[in-house]
Design brief:
The structure is a single chain. The chain is mainly alpha-helical. The protein has five helices and two strands; from the N terminus they run αββαααα. α1 packs antiparallel against α4, α2 packs antiparallel against α3 and α2 packs parallel to α4. The radius of gyration is 25 Å and the shape is rod-shaped.
Length: 192
């Protein structure tokens, strides 16, 4: 029978984190460290969630989540600053966003901040997963961080697409009879 260590409820481990993300990470880490969960049971032995995670596994999880953090953080920062190229491969690329350059830039500026936050979440999750000594702690921190970063990145894309659609809805449409006649009347219609 495997020996599991249970901390008294009054003992609170210290996890130096800040904000809402820090509170959630600390709660997850505390739950993973304090409560033992049996992963599998066989005839003579039982592996528990309090078994130590190998350093190599924790390092791989750290590297993968940091790579995701770098990509999301870079795309978020460039989009937020308006530095993404419309003819490139990065950024929000919906039909509404690709209509013209102004709409593309607005869409990616709106999506930039949540995407940047998604990168920060992935970085925190990677360091938390590396810092937790147990298998359960590593897995829980990695999964929560990955799900959180994907959710924030998708939310940013949706918000950016909605901003692009709202911008397109405000643009006046040029009548079909004005298309290409060069009379100068179309220019008066398209001024905002």
């Amino acid at each position: 029978m495997a020996h599991t260590m249970r901390l008294p409820h009054r003992v609170q481990p210290f996890y130096p984190t800040a904000g809402v993300l820090g509170t959630a990470a600390a709660a997850v880490a505390y739950a993973a460290d304090v409560h033992s969960v049996q992963l599998s049971a066989s005839a003579g032995s039982a592996a528990t969630a309090t078994d130590a995670a190998p350093l190599a596994v924790r390092a791989v999880v750290l590297v993968l989540l940091l790579a995701i953090a770098v990509v999301l953080g870079t795309v978020g920062f460039l989009g937020w600053r308006g530095r993404l190229a419309k003819d490139g491969r990065l950024g929000v690329r919906t039909t509404a966003a690709m209509t013209d350059l102004d709409t593309f830039l607005l869409c990616n500026r709106v999506a930039g901040a949540p995407t940047l936050v998604a990168g920060v979440i992935a970085a925190f999750a990677g360091t938390a997963a590396f810092g937790l000594p147990t298998v359960a702690g590593t897995v829980v921190a990695a999964v929560i961080g990955l799900v959180g970063s994907v959710a924030f990145a998708l939310a940013g894309g949706v918000a950016g697409d909605r901003a692009a659609q709202a911008m397109l809805a405000k643009k006046p449409t040029v009548p079909a009879r004005c298309a290409g006649c060069a009379c100068g009347g179309c220019e008066a219609l398209t001024r905002g």
